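Q: Could you write out the predicted structure for this multi-component system? I'm mainly interested in how the pieces pack against one another.
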Amino acid sequence: MGRSFGASVADTAVVGMGNPYCTDDGVGVAVTRRLPSEVVEGCAVWETAQSGVYLAEKLLGFSRVLIIDGTPLLPAGELRVQPLEEWEAVGGEHRGAHGMSLSRALEMLGSLTSQSGTRPRRAALVHDQVRVPEVWALAVGIPPDPPFGEGLTPRVAAAVQAAVEEVRGWLNS
Amino acid sequence: MSQQKITIDPITRLEGHGKILLYLDEEGGVQDAYLQVPELRGFERFCVGRRGEEMPQITERICGVCPEAHHLASAKALDDAYGAQIPEAARLQRELFYNTYIFSDHLLHLIFLGGPDLLLDEDTPKEQRNVLGVLQAYPELGKRVVQVRAGAQKVLERIGGRAIHPVFALPGGVSQPLDEEKRGEITAYVEAMAELAGDIVSFFHEKVLPDPGLQALLQSPEARLPVHSMGLVDDELAPNFYHGRLRVVSCEGEELFLGDAREGLSLIEEHIEPWTYSKFPYLKSFGWSGLEGGPGSGIYQVGPLARLNVAERMATPAAQEEFERYLDYFGQRPVQATFAYHWARLVEMVQAAEAAHALVSDEALTGRAVRGELSAPGKGVGVVEAARGTLFHEYQLDDQGLLKQVNLVVATTHNAGPIGMSVKAMAQAAARQGQLDERLLNRVEMAFRAYDPCLACATHFLPGELPLTVEVYASDGTFLRRVGR
């Protein structure tokens, strides 16, 4: 897991998801490594190969989270930013071990709030110390079944700077 | 001809990876079952030529479930490859880290991931038969699990250096000493772990075990698998998750092997079937006789149930008490009930919490010497018990410390045969009762989930997933129905 800029306890996290040793699968990690420090001032910047409940638990306490991940559902190099649950609803599920998507894992944790039912759209408290964040996804199109190896294919690599700008825009929104 | 094909397909973001195929005969019975697991070939080859010391960081990226296990198996392989004796403080750090991981992972499975099987009735409606249903039934327990796991996560982060992919273990030890301030901080978290473990044991016996549905599952004849067991044990033959000797016990309780864990890979061979990329390890002294159990078969299992089958006792007092209750309940050893995996996980969770509590109090934990001398590089094997079972990392380094050969054998690969056999038996039982519907999916999924398989580890590729759909086809390929969640 990675850097934390500015604030001692960050309120916002930017999470690069994927395996940097599996070519384009690691594009989310590649984007986080290219983020200028002034862009992520006050944010936690993480890289992870985890999803589902394993990641969801670690996101507790943040108000806002942006997940950056590669997906074969989009043409290589294409970008899309939208709320996590909307992205997962069209098939872009960030599934973790045991089949629980990240959104569903957050829903699970959100069900522990005093309000019963599904995860609230905005950040909410599970109890005094635990907050379920609002999560968005920045999806980067990649070719299917990326092989093991380091580095990105040209079209995906060309999208990294644009993805950095998307992160900047999301953080300023 | 009315043969049908049922496909149970884990939905992944990568097309076509991992599914269960059930073939029905003319009478509607399950004729055969195949667990298809893809193997993304090339990971070991990708590692060849890299520097050996990169492996603890590289291998942990192939799994989003148990990076801790890969990190330490890799570090141990490098310890061995460099002939390093690690200092006491480094060993204690690693063991504290590792027992915390085992506790936390087992807790998650017991309450959340395996919770629908363990804590809810089998007849619970589909829409409630999930983690949310568990939390609605036991909201206070759910909150406490989240809190204590968050504390365990702090322990892993403080020792491991990062919250998700640890960086602390190096060939010959760990990267830095643990100071008293950190010890003080993590002690409170570890105490909470031990307290919750004890409370969950009480909860299990008061609220869970008496349930007739669970009793039926534990006693179910179709959920009994006569296979051999493998796991690490300490000098007193108690389970040890981080190190120890390897013990293999037959399905009849006879000791087949007790020795250096690094020799474990020499005990097994891998069988290949044309219908799956997954390999099927078996004990080569028995030879391959198909996916069948029994004293003459070479099929063996790993993981919590297997570890308790190879153990003569537990390493800590409360775990020992629970182990004795477990043995009294089943009345014979080795235990062969597939759903005993859940109870075995509970016993191990208690040991891990108690062990962590003892380790955090050890005076030597904060010792300053944390890195041993390294000798010339060579061949090394690292063995740990991942939450799901025995994990081997085997490396061959050249004289420059570059990797010449890499071999990983993971828990879910060891269990590929038993998982397939359990799934087949449960599906056959469901089909005999005419349950070619949601109940079939439930039964198959429960058998699969008892092992807590990790397809990410088995395939060396993310993500490791488990959602299932069942598709039923007539023999002519006509789609008949879909059952899924």
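A: Regarding packing and overall arrangement: Chain A has one domain: 3-172.
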